[in-house]
Amino acid sequence: MREVNVKDLIPVVKKLCIDANYYMGEDVINKIREFQDREESETGREVLGILLENYELAAREKMPICQDTGIAVTFVEIGQDVHLVGGDFTEAINEGVRQGYLDGYLRKSMVDDPIIDRVNTKDNTPAIIYTDIVPGDKIKITVAPKGGGSENMSEVKMMKAADGIEGVIDFVVDRIKRSGGNPCPPIVVGVGLGGNFEQSALLAKKSLLRRLDEENPDPKWAKVEKEMLEKINNLGIGPQGLGGRTTALGVFILSKPCHIASMPVAVNVQCHAARHKSAII
Fold first, then answer.
1. Are the CB atoms for 207 and 275 separated by under 8 Å?
2. Please, are residues 272 and 32 in contact by the beta-carbon 8 Å criterion?
3. Which of 152, 130, 281, 276 is nearest to 209 (CA)?
4. Phi-psi region at 218: left, alpha or beta (left = phi > 0; alpha = psi -120 to 50)
5. Structure confidence at residue 62 (pLDDT)
6. Does the first or last residue of the chain, that is N or C, have fewer Cβ atoms within 10 Å of its Cβ?
7. At what angle do helices 42-61 and 26-38 cross, to 10 degrees?
8. pLDDT in tens, 161-211
9. Are 154 and 73 in contact (CB under 8 A)?
10. How much of the chain exceeds pLDDT 90, in percent?
11. Is the bond into 186 cis (omega within 30 degrees of 0)?
């Protein structure tokens, strides 16, 4: 058994919040360059070039990639041989977020009540925290800031098994068509299949943690992802909704078993700022 003081999590979470918002991953940068080379729209190519310049500027000047620095969605994999000591785990994660958003000059977007008293919490807490117990004696923390514009374009649908894979593809493509330029394309599309109502949404969110240069390890889903991506890019929405064939950089699917009477499908849309950083303790 390995003891880890929860206070050791605070500086790690703080740094992840800042780094995720300042430094775009090379996989995203390379994928945008790849699409820029084959984009048919002159405006689309220009927009993609501006995005690349923005990433470079943000990294050089140490400033946020986007003004919407998002909800601090935090995934924590805790080894089953780890014993957390020294305080409250959830509060430690929130303290890391608090320090990261204050010291990193990141926009605070959380309100303490969803409807009646929408008062800003002024430090971007509470974070959205998901935990998984895994083998080993390490802790892996991933912070994935999620902006409101793309999150608002997400959707869960309880489909029938008889709808089949074509029904799923139609639903996902239609969701992106209805989104238009709202989620700041080029987007990354996360799709969660199976489980139940809430697990499908979590699967869609988790799928967005995959690198853009990694193919789905399951060939059958890799094929479906490519088909969805092609259909989405044929919609003509284009970069920032200004037209072109680069509406999405990738489609990622995660699936789980489900009830015989159900076929839950969730779509979680990520904007071009596909931000996530990880660290292992």
1. no
2. yes
3. 276
4. beta
5. 97
6. N
7. 160
8. 999 999 999 999 999 999 999 999 999 999 999 999 999 999 999 999 999
9. no
10. 100
11. yes
What residue type is assigned to position 139 of the chain?
I
The DSSP string of the chain is -EEEEGGGHHHHHHHHHHHHHH---HHHHHHHHHHHHH---HHHHHHHHHHHHHHHHHHHHT--SSS---EEEEEEEEETTEEEESS-HHHHHHHHHHHHHHHTTPPP--BSSSSS---B-SS-PSPEEEEEEESSS-EEEEEEEE-HHHHTT-EEEEE-GGGHHHHHHHHHHHHHHHHTTTT-SSEEEEEEEEE-HHHHHHHHHHHTTS-TT---SSHHHHHHHHHHHHHHHTT---GGGSSSS-SEEEEEEEEEEE-TT-EEEEEEEE-S----EEEE-
Distance CA 250, CA 266 (A): 16
Q: What is the largest CA-CA distance in the chain?
A: 59
Cβ distance 195 to 204 under 8 Å?
Answer: no
User: Judging by beta carbons within 10 Å of its beta carbon (0-12, 13-18, 19+), is residue 268 exposed, middle or buried?
Assistant: buried
Tokens linked to 267: 């779509």
Planar angle of CA 107, 112, 116, nearest 5 degrees: 120
Amino acid sitting at position 24: M
User: What local confidence, expressed as pLDDT, does residue 208 receive?
Assistant: 98
Residue 194 has a pLDDT of: 97
Among residues 36, 70, 40, 34, which one has the least CA distance to residue 50? 36
Low-confidence residues in the chain, pLDDT < 70: none
- Among candidates 249, 168, 161, 255, which has minimal Cα distance to 217? 255
pLDDT score, position 242: 97
Give every CB contact of residue 259 below 8 A, 6+ residues apart in sequence.
196
264 preceded by a cis bond (ω within 30 of 0): no
